[in-house]
Amino acid sequence: MEKIRLGKTDLMVSRSGFGAIPIQRIGDEDSTALLRAAFNGGINYYDTARGYTTSEHKIGLALGDVRDEIIIATKSGAQNGEQLAQNLETSLSQLGTDYIDVYQFHNPSFIPRPNEDNDLYDAALRAKSEGKIRHIGITSHRLDIAIEMVKSGLFETMQFPMSTLATDAEIELVKLCKEHDVGFVAMKGLAGGLITNAKSAFVFLRQFDNVVPIWGIQHMSELEEFLEYEQNPPAFDDEIRQIINKDREKLSDGFCRACGYCLPCPAEINIPMAARMELLLGRMDWRGLISESWQEMMSRINNCSDCRHCIGHCPYNLDTPELLKSNLAYFEKFVAEHKN
What is the pLDDT of residue 252? Predict the structure, then answer.
């Protein structure tokens, strides 16, 4: 598989990376088979996080014997140096390794800097001096903060949502990373499942020669599709442009990206799914989405107390309660029309 340089890290990474959030949902045997197939197919970049439950463990289990041939990126949501050190030791243990190639601050609301009271950045520097971290990166969902992070010169990689729905300003962030030699790792390449044409997503991101998408992969068929695109890259032709334009027309700026930072919800609403239900019903097999369990889940929206926790934690400044209400109304009408 073709490799590119990941910014100033000088790491040579596969053009397609493996996003390991979905392997939380499958067992050890299935995840091992999937990860080994990815490795055998040429993928050498694996992205996970301390917060992704069993994901780190499964990568260590499947790829421990080829550790020197892969690049592992993980993340910590720590708010201070002590927490970061603890997170790092846990990650090293779970991954079965003594070093992390790219260690990322996980979507902080501020820019970690040296010599601050929280000791967060300095803890990462100490770990780097000890050989436990090779490169320091950061992830963000907020464009304004991400721009400042890149310009700060403190981070070797930037992980940011990037898909066919990207705005001109978000594409400028890709260019800014190139100017500052910061490796750009693209998450949410399928917009949290709203983009259903993987081919168009692949082609769109492939046009940027400094972008490494981390495809969230759970099924072997998904992996095989991306490996096929790597072997035979599709052209950015009129057909692809039509697909992208159609998706952009249907998905406005006000859609939920399913980042999950609004959780946990006091009313136990599955916000990342519920706030996108109207879109999902129109883009997926709707039969499973109108089951009794999903009807019960959607009904929880009526229990919303307007605590505004979701609003305060949404990186995209969505009016989440209103979005939930509108999706509930659509869902109830859809169920009534399709229950038989």
Answer: 65
Structure tokens at 324: 């939930």
176 and 65 fall within a common domain: yes
C-alpha angle 169/162/81, rounded to 5°? 95
Whether residue 195 sits in one domain with residue 138: yes
Same domain, yes or no: 198 and 59: yes
Q: Which residue has the tokens 């009313």?
A: 267
Pair of tokens at residue 73: 């990126």
The whole-number pLDDT of residue 107 equals 93
* Predicted pLDDT of residue 181: 98
The reported pTM is 0.89
Task: Provide the pLDDT for residue 254.
Answer: 78
Whether residue 210 is contained in a domain is answered as yes
pLDDT at position 140 is 96
**Rounded Cα–Cα distance for residues 235 and 217 (Å):** 23
* Residues 321, 305: Cα–Cα separation, whole Å: 9
Residue 252 lies in a domain: no
Phi, psi of 143 (to 5 degrees): -60, -45
Instruction: Give every residue of the chain whose pLDDT is below 50, as ranges.
Output: none
How open is the CA angle 229-235-236, to the nearest 5 degrees?
A: 115
DSSP bridge partners of 71: 45
Provide the token pair at 332. Answer: 């109830």
Of residues 212, 230, 110, the one with CA closest to residue 156: 212
> Range of 326's domain?
271-338
DSSP single-letter state for residue 48: -
How many domains, in total, are found in the chain? 2
